[in-house]
Amino acid sequence: MPGPKDIDGSVGVPTFYGAELRWQREQAGMTQQQLVEGSFYGYSHLSEIERGERRMPLDLAEHVDRVLKTDGFFTRRCEDVRKARLRGHAAYFAKVLEAEKQASTIEEWAPTVFPGLLQTEAYARAVVEATHPMEHAEQVEAKVKGRAARAQLLDGDHGKPTYWVILHEFALRQQVLPGEEMAYQLDHLAELALRRRIVLQVLPWNVGTHPFMLGTAMVMTFPDAPPLVYTESLHSGETIDDPGLVQQYRTSYDLLRAAASPPEASLAMVRKMAEEHRNGRQPR
């Protein structure tokens, strides 16, 4: 049976923290299961922390320090990991950054701009500069890099989660970038759909009234936890876990899915508009 995969602690603060945690645990001659005994967490949670994939909760950090006798090291540094993960993102988005890595499915509705998980670097920069016009260049760059890091969630051909997105046709037509760059953004959507990394639907502009006329939504389900909903406006966001409200959002999303064009027709529309942008024609 192969041993655990090596962790490259140089990748960033979370992986450095995880590598140190594994080293200290192995030096103590303990398994992951032995280390979490007496805490409220399972060994799989600890394993994801060691790989740099999950944030260390404060109470677990305190437990680890007591068991490993590490003089408060993991308690002191878990806030550094949280800040590193959040770099380039608003504080209210912290729970989503953690949750989407654990999700089995993500279903998102985007009425005006492409979601961050689908944005190219040029598109992300244009959106950030438009919505945060007073920020300095380094702040803009941090936000762009933060979105690029999130988008790695969709890398690979057989990764998780299953990501289902419904875009309004307006988002495809809106000239966020010059023609060739806008075409590249649409090509990126098409490529993800063709690789089966996303399920893509487009809500036609002439569909009329529909179940999600107000707001945005990201609905996340998990293998071992209740579902969550995240909604966002310009400078704020809210994570919803109330079961009744979550069910209302899920019902609304299902009805919206029924109103949108099927994936095949949606993909054809995306590719057609990419060509129109590429040829210098504003999609009508």
Automatic annotation (TrEMBL):
Pfam family, one: DUF5753
PROSITE patterns per record: HTH_CROC1
Residue span(s) of domain HTH cro/C1-type: 21-73
CDD domains: HTH_XRE (cd00093)
Taxonomic superkingdom: Bacteria
InterPro entries: Cro/C1-type_HTH (IPR001387), DUF5753 (IPR043917), Lambda_DNA-bd_dom_sf (IPR010982)
Coiled coil stretches, renumbered: none
Protein name: Helix-turn-helix transcriptional regulator
The organism of origin for this protein: Streptomyces tubbatahanensis
